[in-house]
Structure formats: structure tokens, C-alpha cells
Write the C-alpha cells for this entry.
Amino acid sequence: MSWVFLIAAGLCEIFYAAAMPRTEGFTRLWPSLFCGAFIAASMYLLSLATRTIPVGTAYAVWVGIGAVGTAVYGMLALGENRSVARMACFGLILMGIVGLKLLTLRGE
């Protein structure tokens, strides 16, 4: 169940990162409330995940999900750079997430 919490925490990170520019420095009420709610949810779910997943692993996976997910959002919705080099770097992050998950399954 901890991995479900961790994935959900990463998804919440994507939502708040995507919403953050709309807050205009947290000066707009509704986007700021939306962003704050997802920040809180992300932190809460991450804390639940660290009950059984080592904190270093959980944090790395959480950040990785957020980074890759937010980059995908930026490329698809905002027209950000889709260069091969950029995609390869995000692929490396994704491989790191999968590797950490596999190592955790083996008990390392």
C-alpha cells in the first residue's frame, strides 16, 4: 500500500507544480488554494509512504514522478522543448525510479 501512497503523492506533485504558475506568486486566491491543497496532499501521502519505504528511496521516487510528470505536462500542454537529449534525460530519471522500486522489492 505504501507504493500506492507514494505514486499518489507524486501525482499530487504534478498537479501542484502545473498549477503554481497560475498562482502568480500566490497572489490569486483560487489557483493558490488549489496549489496549496495538492501540496498538502502530496506531503501527507509521502509521509504515509515513508512508514515502510526508506525515506531516501521514497523521496527520490516522489521527486522523479513529479519531475517527469511535470515535464510531460509541459511538453504536451505548454509546448515545451521535446528534444531527444531532454527526453533521454527524463528517461534516465524514469529508469532510476524503476530501479529503486525493484531494489525495494528485493529488500535492499
Remarks:
- The chain is about 80% helix and 0% strand.
- The chain has one domain: 2-106.
